[in-house]
C-alpha cells in the first residue's frame, strides 16, 4: 500500500480465518471491505497447528470457502477420561443429531483456501501491510500504517493486532500467564483414529489427540521445562505419552516434528470502542485445553456480519453496542469454562481426580446434560 490516504466502508486488520470469514460475509452483501494482512501474499505460514473446528464453525467456513477434498478429518466422537482414576464421558454427533461433531483441518491449508476465496470474491487485501495504530473519531476510524500511509473507514475491525486494541479509549486487556506450554506433534498409533478425538487429564498435564488422516495431532499441556526437554527428544515424548494414555490404540509407532507454544489467557474488558470492534484473537486468546479459541472467534465474526447486514452506518455506536451485548454471554462463558478446566481440573491427587471423575460420569450418564454440554461446545452459549 502506498503512502496515500485511502478510505473503505469497513477495514479489517488481519486476514486469518476469523478476519477472512468476516470479509467474505460482508463482501457478499455488497460492502466495500479492505483487509490488512501483515504476511505477504501466498506466503502461507508453516505452522504445526491443526485446528479443531466444531460442525457449526465448519459450516460457517464452508459457506464462504469450499475446502479442498481430503483437507478435513471428521470428528464423530469425543472421549474424555483421566489417568489413574475412574470416570469418563463420551460425546457423539448423534447426541445433537449431527453426522459429525466437528473436524480437524491444518492451519496452512485453511489459510490458503481462504486466501483464494478472498481473491475470487474480489475482496481488496493489502498483504505485507502492518498497522501501527488506530485513532477513533466521531465519523470514522483512522488506521496509521507502518509505511506512513493512512486508511480511514466507517468501521475498523481488529481480528488480530494485539496491542492495537489496548491503545483504544477505555480498553484494557486482562492477561493470565499459565506458566505452561503446549506441545504439538503428529503421532501414529497401531490403530487409526476412526473418527474419535481423545481428551485425557494426565498426571503430567491434560492432552488432546485429534484425528488427522490416519494419525493424530497431539496437543499436550506441559511445564516449560518439560516442553523444552520433550521437544528435543521425540522418543521420550512417545514413551511418556504411552504411559499416560495406555494401550487403547496399541503402541505409539511414530512421533513427528514437535513444536511448542507458551500459554496465556488474554481477554479484553470490552470488545468495542468508538468506530472499532474486536473479534477473534484481538478480543480473546485462551488455553487450548477445550479447543474453543478459534470456534469462539468465528462466532464473533458471524455475529458481527449478521448485525451489519443492511446497516446504513456500520460503525454506528448503537450497532456496536448490540454486538458487544450479543457476544458477552458466549465469550465470558467459554473463556470462564476453559480457564476453570485449567485451574480446577488440571491437577493431580485423589480429591481433584475423584471430583473430576464424578463430573464426567454424571455428564455421561444423563443424556439431557450431555446434549446440553455438547451443544455449548458445538454452537456456543
Explained architecture:
The chain is α+β, with helices and mostly antiparallel strands. It has two domains: 6-71 and 105-175 and 265-341, FAD/NAD(P)-binding domain; 75-103 and 178-264, D-Amino Acid Oxidase, Chain A, domain 2 (2-Layer Sandwich), CATH 3.30.9.10. The protein contains ten helices and 19 strands. It has helices spanning 17-28, 55-64, 107-121, 163-166, 224-231, 234-245, 293-308, 317-345, 350-365, 367-379; strands spanning 5-13, 33-37, 50-54, 72-75, 77-82, 88-92, 102-106, 124-127, 131-136, 141-145, 150-158, 173-189, 196-202, 205-212, 215-222, 252-268, 272-273, 276-278, 284-285. Strands 1, 2, 8, 9, 10, 11, 17 and 18 form an eight-stranded mixed sheet that branches. An eight-stranded mixed sheet has the order 6-5-13-14-15-12-16-19, with helices on both faces. The protein has a three-stranded antiparallel sheet with strand order 3-7-4. A hairpin with a 5-residue loop joins strand 5 and strand 6.
Radius of gyration from CA coordinates: 21 Å
Write down the domain tally: 2
List SSEs in N-to-C order: EHEEHEEEEHEEEEHEEEEHHEEEEHHHH
Strand content: 25-35%
Mind telling me the CATH superfamily name of the largest domain?
FAD/NAD(P)-binding domain
Number of helices: 10
Main beta-sheet annotation: 8 strands, mixed
Q: Which structural category do the helix and sheet elements fall into?
A: alpha+beta
**From the 3D coordinates, which CATH architecture of the largest domain would you assign?**
3-Layer(bba) Sandwich
Principal-axis shape = globular
Low-confidence stretches: none
Pfam family, one: FAD_binding_3
GO molecular function: FAD binding; monooxygenase activity; oxidoreductase activity, acting on paired donors, with incorporation or reduction of molecular oxygen
Pathway: Cofactor biosynthesis; ubiquinone biosynthesis
Family: Belongs to the UbiH/COQ6 family.
Amino acid at each position: 500500500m502506498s503512502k496515500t490516504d485511502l478510505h473503505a466502508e469497513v477495514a479489517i486488520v488481519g486476514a486469518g480465518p476469523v478476519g477472512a470469514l468476516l470479509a467474505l460475509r460482508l463482501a457478499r452483501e455488497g460492502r466495500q471491505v479492505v483487509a490488512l494482512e501483515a504476511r505477504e501474499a501466498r506466503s502461507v505460514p508453516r505452522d504445526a497447528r491443526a485446528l479443531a473446528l466444531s460442525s457449526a464453525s465448519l459450516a460457517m467456513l464452508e459457506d464462504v470457502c469450499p475446502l479442498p477434498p481430503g483437507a478435513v478429518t471428521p470428528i464423530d466422537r469425543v472421549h474424555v477420561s483421566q489417568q489413574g482414576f475412574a470416570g469418563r464421558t463420551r460425546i457423539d454427533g448423534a447426541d445433537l443429531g449431527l453426522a459429525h461433531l466437528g473436524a480437524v483441518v491444518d492451519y496452512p491449508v485453511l489459510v490458503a483456501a481462504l486466501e483464494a476465496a478472498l481473491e475470487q470474491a474480489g475482496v481488496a487485501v493489502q498483504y505485507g501491510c502492518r498497522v501501527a495504530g488506530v485513532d477513533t473519531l466521531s465519523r470514522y476510524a483512522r488506521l496509521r500504517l507502518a509505511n506512513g500511509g493512512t486508511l480511514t473507514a466507517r468501521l475498523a475491525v481488529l481480528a488480530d493486532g494485539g496491542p492495537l486494541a489496548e491503545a483504544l479509549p477505555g480498553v484494557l486487556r486482562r492477561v493470565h500467564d499459565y506458566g505452561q506450554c503446549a506441545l504439538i506433534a503428529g503421532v501414529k498409533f497401531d490403530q487409526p483414529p476412526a473418527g474419535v478425538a481423545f481428551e485425557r487429564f494426565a498426571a503430567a498435564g491434560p492432552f488432546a489427540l485429534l484425528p488427522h488422516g490416519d494419525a493424530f495431532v497431539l496437543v499436550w499441556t506441559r511445564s516449560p521445562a518439560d516442553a523444552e526437554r520433550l521437544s528435543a527428544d521425540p522418543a521420550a515424548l512417545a514413551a511418556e505419552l504411552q504411559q499416560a494414555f495406555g494401550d487403547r490404540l496399541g503402541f505409539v509407532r511414530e512421533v513427528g516434528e514437535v513444536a511448542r507454544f507458551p500459554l496465556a489467557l488474554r481477554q479484553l474488558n470490552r470488545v468495542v470502542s468508538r468506530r472499532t470492534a474486536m473479534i477473534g484473537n484481538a478480543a480473546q486468546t485462551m488455553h487450548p485445553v477445550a479447543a474453543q479459541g478459534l470456534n469462539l472467534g468465528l462466532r464473533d465474526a458471524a455475529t458481527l456480519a449478521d448485525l451489519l447486514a443492511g446497516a446504513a452506518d456500520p460503525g454506528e455506536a448503537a450497532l456496536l453496542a448490540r454486538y458487544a451485548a450479543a457476544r458477552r454471554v458466549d465469550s465470558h462463558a467459554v473463556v470462564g469454562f476453559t480457564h476453570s478446566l485449567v485451574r480446577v481440573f488440571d491437577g493431580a491427587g485423589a480429591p481433584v481426580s475423584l471430583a473430576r471423575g464424578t463430573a464426567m460420569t454424571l455428564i455421561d450418564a444423563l443424556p439431557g446434560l450431555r446434549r446440553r454440554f455438547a451443544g455449548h461446545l458445538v454452537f456456543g452459549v
